[in-house]
UniProtKB/TrEMBL annotation:
Entry keyword set: Phosphoprotein
Top-level taxonomic group: Eukaryota
Domain (J) ranges: 16-83
The species this protein was found in: Phaedon cochleariae
Name this polypeptide is given: J domain-containing protein
GO MF entries: heat shock protein binding
InterPro entries to which the protein is assigned, alphabetical: DnaJ_domain, DnaJ_domain_CS, HTH_DNAJC9, J_dom_sf, J_domain-containing_protein
Entry keyword Phosphoprotein: yes
Recorded GO CC terms: cytoplasm; nucleus
SUPFAM superfamilies xref list: Chaperone J-domain
Coiled-coil regions listed in the entry: none
Magnesium in keyword set: no
Length: 254
């Protein structure tokens, strides 16, 4: 089983908690919370399609764990000193419960607002650079790693990367600038198919479905806890009568 640092490296391209949240190491608790909220909006399991749900869920869980460490002074100090996270520290961590306790119910408009702020920002430029370098110019990887990006974003991303190459910020990758037509066509066909499906979605109905899903998860979790208590909680023992109580009981029975 991969350790937490390895999972961060796999899903975010690095294992530095501050770099993942895109905050300074001296960031305040408020700044860290804000960064966590914005990123977790992107990967909330109920906000992505089925094809991306598994990866989004893992990212969502990882972000919650990272925030739970950095918002705790003692855990944050230990992490700052060692740069490591002990997986055994939070074996019972529940990302959905953590989210609900931290934030209000997310709505479509929250994600749309963040999308407007994100596109064209310094944060997006850093993400594109990291995805380009990490994926060695693989456009599929870039579109997977950069939030809100899709096939329609390709010309803009190519222009951004070209400027980075011209400024010698990143290496030139032939696979990026001379991508095969077949590979590009496969990606675009898949995108068009998903786009048509998304256009058929009633957003109000989606909100209701998300709410129903969350209520179902809460109910399932409560049932699970009750089942555990029924199986493993110590049985209530009959109260042992004191000598005085025993005498009183005997008198009544006579």
């Amino acid at each position: 089983m991969a350790d937490f640092n390895s999972l961060c490296e796999k899903y975010f391209g690095c294992c530095d908690f501050y770099e993942i949240l895109k905050v300074d190491r001296n960031a305040s608790e408020k700044e860290i919370k804000k960064a966590y909220y914005r990123l977790s909006l992107l990967f909330h399991p109920d906000r992505v399609d089925d094809d991306h749900k598994e990866i989004a869920t893992e990212k969502f869980k990882a972000l919650g764990k990272i925030h739970s460490i950095l918002q705790n002074p003692d855990k944050r100090n230990l992490y700052n000193e060692s740069g490591q996270f002990d997986d055994e520290m939070d074996t019972s961590f529940n990302c959905m419960d953590y989210w609900r306790n931290m934030f209000k119910k997310i709505e479509i408009k929250d994600i749309q607002k963040y999308e407007q702020e994100y596109i064209g920002s310094d944060t997006e430029l850093r993400d594109i650079k990291r995805a380009y370098v990490g994926g060695k110019g693989n456009m599929d990887v870039i579109l997977e790693m950069v939030p809100f990006s899709n096939c329609d974003s390709e010309p803009r991303i190519i222009d951004i990367v070209q400027k980075m190459v011209d400024n010698e910020e990143v290496e030139y990758y032939k696979a990026f600038f001379n991508e095969s037509k077949a590979k590009k066509m496969r990606r675009h066909r898949k995108y068009e198919k998903e786009k048509k499906l998304s256009e058929q979605i009633d957003m109000e109905e989606l909100d209701k479905q998300i709410e129903a899903n969350m209520q179902k998860r809460v109910a399932e979790f409560d049932t699970f806890i009750c089942d555990l208590e029924a199986r493993y909680a110590p049985k209530t023992k009959k109260k042992r009568l004191s000598i005085t109580d025993a005498k009183k009981k005997n008198k009544k029975s006579k």
